[in-house]
Amino acid sequence: MATEIDERAERKAVARRFEAERPRIEFGTAWEYAPAPEAADIVSIEKRENLFINGKFVPARSGKVFETINPATEGVLSEVAEGGAADIDAAVRAAEEAHRKRWSRLKPAERGKYLYRIARLMQEKSRELAVLETINGGKPIKESRDVDVPLAIAHFFYHAGWADKLEYAFPRHRVSSIGVCGQIIPWNFPLLMAAWKIAPALAAGNTVVLKPAETTPLTSLALARIFQEADLPPGVVNIVPGAGETGAQLVNHPRVRKVAFTGSTEVGKLIQRAIAGSGKRLSLELGGKAANIVFEDAAIDQAVEGIVNGIYFNQGHVCCAGSRLLVQESVAERVIQKLKLRIETLRVGDPMDKNTDVGAINSRMQLDKIRELVACGVEEGALLHQSSCALPAKGFFFPPTFFSEVAQSHRIAREEIFGPVLAVMTFRTPDEAVEKANNIPYGLSAGVWTDKGSKIFQITSKMRAGVVWANTFNKFDPASPFGGYKESGFGREGGMHGLRAYVELS
Amino acid sequence: MSALPSLLDLSRVPPVDQVGIEERAAGLARRSIKKEAKRAGIRLAMSMLDLTTLEGKDSEGKVRQLCRKAIRPLPGDPTVPHVAAICVYPNFVAIAKDALFGSGVKVASVATGFPAGQVPLPVKLDETRRAVSAGADEIDMVIDRGAFLSGEYDRVTEEILAVKEACGAAHLKVILETGELETYDNVRRASDLAMAAGADFIKTSTGKVTPAATPPVVLVMLEAIRDHYLATGRRVGMKPAGGIKTSKQALHLLVLVKETLGDAWLTPDLFRIGASTLANDLLMQLAKESTGRYQNEDYFTKD
Amino acid sequence: MTAKGRGSEKGIRATRGSETAAVLRGQLDRDSGIGGLGIRKTYKLYVGGEFIRTESGRADAVESPRGALLANISRGSRKDLREAVRKARAAQPGWAARSAYNKGQILYRMAEMLEGRVDGFEKLLRDGRGLTPAAARREVRASIDRLVHYAGWSDKFTALLGTVNPVASSYFDFSVPEAMGVVGIVAPNAPDLLGLVTHLAPVLVAGNTTVVLVSEKHPLASLEFAEVLATSDLPAGVANLISGRREELVPHLARHMDVQAISDAGGDIALSKLLARDAAVNVKRVRGYELRDYQSDDAQGLDFIEAFVEIKTTWHPIGV
């Protein structure tokens, strides 16, 4: 027994020596980037932000407010009116009236022109929107500027063109609008999700009451100002910030004809139950735990980029994040080595710095949840790898992290962490990869990496997921339908299929 | 002789996805290099420059002028370092060697039937030996792209091995002429092949073919160098050349190096930039950084 | 609604020994025609390609509108349902992977098999629902036509529901419909045969496998239809038919974690609401149907297929 232990210790020592002598790549300070902060003074945030109902900014009837902060500094940005039942009722009634009297009667092409106008105004204010998004949500300015805002604008442009072409999308049907849409959006892509929800709803002739997430109301309210500037008729879009209770009031309001929700699977199920039998239409875009499958014949360096983009983009606060990596055993060591190197070059810190790759975690609550699950991964015996980057003293930050030696049964391999934490597992054959990838109640997205064309078609077709990225990851476009299988929800957003959720066919 | 199998297992060369590599290179192009980082980066780029003249009309006078520029790029400002090397045709090696004596600037000579490489191997070897004996510190050879593209990898490898031997103590840079290889897969394969055959540096282009040193091509080669280092422990240098005219491009290249290979490669020993007109743009940007004024080219010497 | 209360309705009732004997007596005389004693059919569940009795051993009597006993049928249990879902799950990938052409051939084969048994089905509809000969004939003809209609859809709906999406980057991006998986169908009480075919065919043609709760009041034609399924080259487990009581079975179907969607044409508002609530347990897709006229061409078409497909979007870089 003793000799066995000695032998093991000896083997470990050899392995350590070998590791120490292995060629190393150091990402140090030989040439450092200077701070490159985006100017924040381009935005002016009101001390008190109000609800946007019937074309006007109004305080909550209850007078209630909540604070919204910058998660990178924990500083308070503004006090925001918290919508209650009376406010939701006023907003829904305004939306209903706007639908009945104006919006649904407007010539479709005219509706489209409003959307085009909104898109143009957003373009003009794109820098301001990007800064606001980053200040309020913690995401790197690079992403707000290059991804969130341009995509949000593109969604308005795209749907503007559909307004007068709906009959072409649904041949043999008479197409009409549904009525008031109650829309609830999450905090991970505040402006982009608002655009995903509002643009198709308006294009199809519906009116909207939107509830932004509690922690990120500011860009939705900035969008409201753009609607005012665009002379959008009062009541067509109403924005009522608040927390879960405000959302529940919206969902349960009897005059809401359609509910669209993006958020957790848990809340999605509650909504599905709540409106059962009400005749309300529903679309759900819920959680995910996507697998990124890397085959041995993949373009490995691009796969590593895809893995990094899949899990560290937006701090991993992405429902379709590639949070599980399934890598073929023959290349697992290489991929893990490259991943270790790559996370060292991710620049973590001030979201307003133009060189920051990973910004602030959206809230303390989310940070606590990430910490808890990472601790759980360690406890369950997975091997932790973490970037050695320094984290800012203030604000909510978490270093890019991944676990190797993860088993399917680990919590970190099954639960949506919604943070920059990746679980790495291995497989030997394509069948095993497919089986493991699908072995999860979610089905939002998946990634497949291989250089072999025929393999791509087979593996992607076997993925039980609504969006499959082959040799890429986390790509979005308004023309491309997005949405899940299984417990990741139903209905699509974007593309021709996305329109279906906002039209009444007869 | 079939040297290849023992040197390089082609089946282990990873494929490269075009869209993926281009996105990554474009992503790194969005790094914001400001203030001190910009000044340091420009000085670093200057120290890595292979100041080049490779024209039919090259003359002794031209080469001597260029050598003066190489030693002292900005007369009156000693904080601006000399460039890494002068790159000339073999005929001018002795002249450059003489003009650069004691300066620390190295002499690089193209050889092996530059730029096409379509001459018999003995001629290539003879040209190499002559350049070395004339004093060249570095030899920039071209590979036989025709042979490479028709799958004669053994022949390409054997030529590199032979030229390497002919170089003796001189450093060998192997030019892949990526613009003619066309695909990133080919660039990766040629990079791995050149490194396996003993290249001290791999270099993108002759400067006579476009496209040349595009950022994604450079990134593919840097990744090949990284993988070669991790597998063998040998550090191979990198030299993008062709079409690099602006400071912005040069800084972008440094970003690629910094974030792919790390600190060890941020030195003229392992990273060079081949260019003929870049130097003045570096100087103009440096002046702009220190004075805050945008510059006019007539204030900088053209040699 | 209790079993006892239901027993008093026309159509179906729980079988109890002595009473059954009495009811059957009148029927026996009619059955013994020229050749002697008629052979009665035992109607069973159709699960995994086999005709099985309910594991519960329970039976319900099916009566004609005038109260004559027509047959005793299996009163399917939750365990039967569980078994049916298991078989449907096992059969699903294989069925979805069949070529569209092959699926179309099989649906057309179903029409052929039904055509060959027109007389028998007409009689079941006349006896079971009291339809006139003309009405019974119309329903069987419409059922055949509906199968033919969907046979033709198999290799076409993908082109109409799929898109190529012009994204603003160097990717080839396309969306295609795929099967949802296992779909539960709550068939209408009437029209029993045409209702079954109307809701079954589009679900099958989309590549789903199914567990159908057949008409509770008039189950005989549906159970007879299982024989059409069994002889149409439809792989075992693709369509499973369960007879029995809705209020007993629907909650288990709605809460089953291995059922992805439900086509609810049961027509019972309270039960539908319950179903819709319980379906949230695994975010089931629920499509409710209240079709006024099953004979109409509006009761068929692409929309019925679209309701039971998922849209999958695939991105791939365009490069060399």
Structure, described:
The complex is a heterotrimer of chains A (506), B (303) and C (320). With 506 residues, chain A is an alpha/beta fold. Chain A has helices at 2-21, 85-103, 108-124, 126-137, 141-162, 166-169, 190-203, 218-229, 244-252, 265-274, 300-312, 329-344, 364-379, 411-414, 430-438, 453-462, 495-499; strands spanning 48-49, 51-53, 56-58, 65-70, 75-81, 175-176, 180-184, 207-211, 237-239, 258-262, 281-285, 291-294, 324-328, 383-386, 401-404, 421-427, 442-443, 445-449, 467-470, 485-486, 489-490, 504-505. In chain A, the strands form six sheets. Chain A has a seven-stranded mixed beta sheet with strand order 14-15-16-13-12-18-19, with helices on both faces. In chain A, strand 10 (258-262), helix 10 and strand 11 form a beta-alpha-beta unit. In chain A, helix 4 packs across helix 5 and helix 11 packs across helix 12. The mean pLDDT of chain A is 96. By secondary structure, chain B is an alpha/beta fold. Chain B contains 13 helices and eight strands. An eight-stranded parallel beta sheet of chain B has the order 7-6-5-4-3-2-1-8. In chain B, strand 1, helix 4 (60-71) and strand 2 (85-88) form a beta-alpha-beta unit. The longest helix of chain B is centred in the last third of the chain and has 18 residues, at 215-232. Chain C is of the alpha/beta class and 320 residues long. In chain C, the strands form four sheets. In chain C, strands 10-9-8-11-12 form a five-stranded parallel beta sheet, sandwiched between helices. Chain C has a three-stranded antiparallel beta sheet with strand order 1-4-5. A three-stranded antiparallel beta sheet of chain C has the order 6-7-13. In chain C, helix 5 (118-129) crosses helix 6 (133-153) and helix 5 runs antiparallel to helix 9. The longest helix of chain C has 21 residues, at 133-153. Classes of the chains: A alpha/beta (506), B alpha/beta (303), C alpha/beta (320). The A-C interface holds A 154, 172, 265, 268-270, 272-273, 276-277, 284, 286, 441, 456, 460-461, 463, 465-472, 475, 477, 479-483, 485-490, 492, 495-497, 505 and C 163, 165-169, 171, 173, 175, 178, 180, 260, 269, 272-273, 276-277, 279-283, 285, 301, 303, 310-317.
